[in-house]
Amino acid sequence: MSKRRDPNAEFDLFIPALGDLSLRDQREVMERPFFSLQKRKRLKPIEYRSPDGEAWVRVQAIPDYGMATIWDADILIWAASTLNRMKQQGLNDLPRTLTTTPYDLLRAIKRGTGGRDYQELQAALLRLQTTSITTSIRATTRRQKAGFNWLDSWTFDTDVETEQPRGMTLTLSDWVYEGIVNEKSLLTMHPDYFLLSGGLERALYRIARKHVGSQQGGWLCRVEVLRDKTGSDAQPKEFNRMLRRVIEADQLPDYMMEPAETVDRSAAVMFRRRGEAEAMALAERTRAEEDRRARFDADRRRTEQVDAKMDHLAGRR
């Protein structure tokens, strides 16, 4: 298992702004299963309820298009990142409809720009528009819930003579838009996220980014809870096998994973920031050296005190 190569690694003089786009995603979406983890058409609904029962999500697809995938969600990350940049530039009235070109969007999410890539982009827009979500997230009362699709609408303009795509628009649903314009709901993402080739890898990165962030000490999660959070429809035994492969491949940006156990010996995974182990080892060596010096200084002071006392007694004789 390895990262996908960036198809647009070379600098493009015509779109310099895209390289400056700081990636953002909605924290409410990152830790819960809103997307299919597979590229084949998924029709089986996602049913999720948090361990405390407070948050629940139901995702449904229509047979014609299937459920929106975690790769389709790249378009929503681009939208969140674009609106966040507009806000940073001082724009007060952020638009719910974004205008771009298929070429620029594909480049921004590190995809190719061939004919098939444009076809897949249109298929992704269809899935985002037709996938239905019902959730208690952001509800003000226990009986309240929200229903929405990711996109309300989209357009794809094609040149009449060349049949090449020229411009496009996408209109975010109210639920998505409101989550993006609330600045506290966004988290930064590593740009190499787009290069992760596996759906489970992507889900695990998003979960780690939400729960671990930049804190030290890591975050421990039971495997069964992790399976629910990813929305995987794999059987537990198969999920465990897939999880081991991701841990062994060690490809997640910023985070590393290792097998662990909870206090009741349940199978779990420990997520840590990369470099934390080295930092902790350095800190431990520093503390050991400080303790050694403190003991040395204490021994020296005691020796000096004993010598001074002996000299004093010798003087009195």
List keywords for this structure.
four-stranded antiparallel β-sheet, single chain, Arc Repressor Mutant, subunit A, 19% strand, 9 helices, 317 residues, alpha+beta, three-stranded antiparallel β-sheet
Describe this structure in words.
The protein is elongated. By secondary structure, the protein is α+β, with helices and mostly antiparallel strands. The chain has two domains: 189 residues, no CATH class; 76 residues, Arc Repressor Mutant, subunit A (Orthogonal Bundle). The longest helix is centred in the last third of the chain and has 41 residues. Helix content is 40%, strand content 19%. It has a four-stranded antiparallel β-sheet with strand order 2-3-5-6, with no helix packed on it. A three-stranded antiparallel β-sheet has the order 4-8-7. A hairpin with a 6-residue loop joins strand 2 and strand 3. It starts with 23 loop residues before the first strand and ends with a helix. About 3% of the residues have low confidence. The protein contains nine helices and twelve strands.
Q: Give the overall pLDDT as a whole number.
A: 87
Oligomer: single chain
What is the number of independent domains?
A: 2
Rounded to the nearest angstrom, the radius of gyration is 27 Å
- Please list the strands of the largest sheet in the order they lie side by side: 2-3-5-6
- What is the 3D shape? elongated
Proportion in helices: 40-55%
Number of strands: 12
Largest sheet: 4 strands, antiparallel
